[in-house]
Specification:
Blueprint (H helix, E strand, L loop, with lengths): L1 H27 L6 E3 L7 E3 L1 H8 L3 H4 L8 H7 L7 H16 L9 H4 L3
């Protein structure tokens, strides 16, 4: 009887440890902290990926438009599935302006603030 109880406790602890480790590993897979986005003829954009994740709390806000893969924006532009400046004009700036109108701290609202020389 004691042996069965001990085995049950050990199995429970093992399950807990494996579940906790899986949860931690899942949280760590957030992509890069900062990304360097190709901007065609403009200077590349240093994109604070983790900061956006903290503020938005929903990856689909951006990743409904493009997949979670390195170079996906450039690839979609090359395929004609994304127009030049579509991400910035229809998503980034729109979101930043909305947040500003709600009185929230937000990101840049002009081209030069992201496309540093």
């Amino acid at each position: 009887m004691k042996k069965n109880r001990l085995n049950l406790i050990l199995m429970g602890l093992l399950f807990f440890c494996l579940t906790a480790a899986g949860g931690i590993a899942g949280e760590e897979n957030r992509g890069s902290e900062n990304l360097l986005l190709d901007s065609g003829r403009m200077n590349p954009v240093h994109f604070p990926h983790y900061r956006h994740q903290e503020v938005l709390d929903d990856c689909r806000v951006c990743h409904d438009l493009f997949p979670k893969e390195v170079g996906s924006i450039k690839l979609l532009k090359d395929q004609g599935k994304l127009k030049k400046q579509e991400v910035m004009k229809k998503h980034c700036i729109v979101c930043h302006r909305k947040m500003k109108s709600e009185g929230k701290k937000t990101g840049p609202l002009t081209c030069g603030r992201c496309h540093h020389k």
